[in-house]
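Example 3.
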Amino acid sequence: MTSYFTHLECTRTGKSYDVDGLHNLSTEGVPLFARYDLDAIRDTLSRDDLAGRAINMWRYREVMPLRDGDQAITLDEGFTPLRAAPRLGAWAGVPGLLIKDESVNPTGSFKARGLSAAVTAAAARGVRKLAIPTAGNAGGALAAYAAAAGLESYVFMPRDTPIAFHVEARSCGAHVELVDGLISDCGRIVGERKQAEGWFDVSTLKEPYRVEGKKTMGYEVAEQLGWKLPDVVIYPTGGGTGLIGMWKAFEEMEHLGWIDKGQRPRMVSVQAEGCAPIVRAFHSGAETAEPWQGAHTVASGLRVPGAVGDFLMLRALRESGGTAIAVSDDELIAASHDFARLTGIFPAPEGGATLSALLHLKEQGLIQAHERVVLFNTGSGYKYLEALNRFPE
Ligand SMILES: *Cc1c(COP(=O)(O)O)cnc(C)c1O
C-alpha cells in the first residue's frame, strides 16, 4: 500500500520530526503526534471502502503510522464489540446505553492497541530491546507483542500490582522487575537506565505510536454507529492516551469527511478518589495537573499520579464540553458487580468506574435519559480477582 504517514509534530510548537527516526518526546519535552496527508486519503479512500477489511484496528491502515513496506505486528487487536446494554441502561436510567468492550482484546485490555502500534514502529526501525513502566496491563501487552515480533522486553511494575500482571508478562518472556513504588517510580528507573542498557522507552505518550493505536477506538465507535458519534463518552483515565487518541481521531475523521463537524461527544474522564490529578486540575481551571501524592486505588490502570499528556487531556475535556469525576474504590467495585450482573460482561474495575460515574452524572443532571452514552470497559476483570472478590452482604 501507499503510505500517507508524512511526519511527526510537536504538540506544543508544531515543529516537524521525520518518520524514519526513533523518537520519544519532542525537544520541548512534550508528546509528538503522527500526521498524515489527510487530503490525499480523502481523495482516494471512502469510508465505505473499509467494509471488507480485516476485523482489527489495522483496517484503518491509511491513518496508521506505517511507512511503505512496514509490516504490522498484530494479534488481531481492536474492532471490539460496541454492545447495546438494555438491562443496565434501564437500571441506570439511560436506555440507549452502549458498552465498548475492550476486554476481548489480546492480553485482556485495550493496551494491546497501543503496544501493537508501538512495537510495530520500533521493530520496523531496528529496535531490539523495549522497556516500559506500567501500572499493569501495558506490561503484559508489551511482553506479548515483543514475543510476537521476537524482541526483548523489560517491564517495570509496582510490587503490589495484582499477580496476573506479573505472571502474564513473565510467561511471554519479559524481564519483569517489581518496584517498591508507583508507576512514576518505574518510569524514573527506565529513564535512568535506558541509555546504558540500550532500551527503547515505550512509556505512553513518550513515544508517538501508542496513542495512534488507541485512537482507533474513536474510528471504531464512529464506524459501528454508522458514522455518527454518541452524545457522551465515559472513559477511565490514567495516562489519558485513549482519551487523547479518540479526540485526535474525531479531528481526523472530520477532515476526511467521514463524520460531520460539530457532532463530537462530551468526553468524561473518570478517576479514582485515591488518585485524581486530572479531576482536580479540571475543576480548578488549570491547564496542567499537579502530581498526586500518595496515589492509591485497586483500579491499577488509574493509579497514575502524573501524566505527560495532562494538558492534551484537559484541553480535550474542555473543548468537548465534558467533565471529570472521581469515584471511590468501594463504589467502583460495587459498580463492577452491577455491570457484570446486568450485562454478562465481567469488567475490569476501571470499567466499573465508568458506571459509577454515569450514575453520579445522571443524578446531577449532567447526562439526560434520552442521550446515547458509551461506557468504555477497558479491560477484563480476570486479572483483578483479589480486588473484585468483595460482594455486598
Ligand atoms: C491503562 C488502563 C486505563 C487507563 O488508560 P489511559 O488511556 O492510559 O488513560 C484504564 N483501564 C485499564 C484497564 C487500563 O489498563
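The pocket of pyridoxal-5'-phosphate is lined by residues 109, 111, 137, 204, 236-242, 301, 348, 350, 378-379 (CB under 6 Å). The chain has a mean pLDDT of 97.
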